[in-house]
Amino acid sequence: MCSLSGAGAALDIGGGLAGGIGAFYQTAAQQVSLRSQADMARINARLATSQGRLARQRGEAAVAQQRIKVGQVRAGQKVTDAASNVDLGYGTTALRDVSTAVVGEIDALTIDANAIREQQGAAVEAAGLRSQATAAETQASALSPFAAAAVSILGSAGSIFGRYANFGGTPGRTSFQGGGSGRSTGVGQFGATGMKFGVRTTR
Q: Which of 173, 174, 156, 186 is nearest to 11 (CA)?
């Protein structure tokens, strides 16, 4: 008779179950990690948006300060010219006033443009971070710890069944006839260390 060892079968089944449990927790950990990444990306996106808004506000304040400064310079020049009895509307005095105004406005527009670029850069960064959050959340939703465990256990079960089938079709007992005047019965055991056979002869 040839039979599979019960202890070996138990070890195989236990190993399959352990693999399924491991697959469950590994997949669950991946889900947690991906969702944490998504949450962090969303937080960073909001932070980038806030930083862009603050940059715009700083730019607007700087532009206002620049224009006030230019206005003060022009007013000071006019006071000085008036005290000197200089005609403010003609000649070099008028040109100087215009030049001061133009240069001051160019500086103000440059400050404003820099603030706008900074805000736009922050907006692009925030959009990229939101895309990362969506991708990570999608990957996490596609994972299933229970499905991973089931696939692992079924794969182990198929492997165990295939191994048993190679030694008799199904786990059980098989008799075979020997030659000579007697009948030989083989007893086989399949365990973790391999296949063992014993032979006893009856007449």
A: 156
How far is Cα 88 from Cα 92, in angstroms, rounded to an integer? 9
- Give the residue from 73, 56, 187 showing the smallest Cα distance to 117: 56
Distances in whole angstroms, Cα of residue 32 to Cα of each of 36, 131, 133, 136: 6, 18, 13, 10
Q: Which residues fall within 8 angstroms of residue 80, CB to CB, at 6 or more apart?
A: none
State the virtual CA torsion across 187, 190, 196, 197 in degrees, nearest 10: 20
| pTM score over 0.85 | no
What is the structure's pLDDT at 157?
A: 67
Dist. CA 58–CA 65, nearest whole Å:
11
Residue 39: predicted pLDDT? 95
**DSSP line for 29-51:** HHHHHHHHHHHHHHHHHHHHHHH
Do 27 and 143 meet the contact criterion of CB atoms below 8 Å apart? Answer: yes
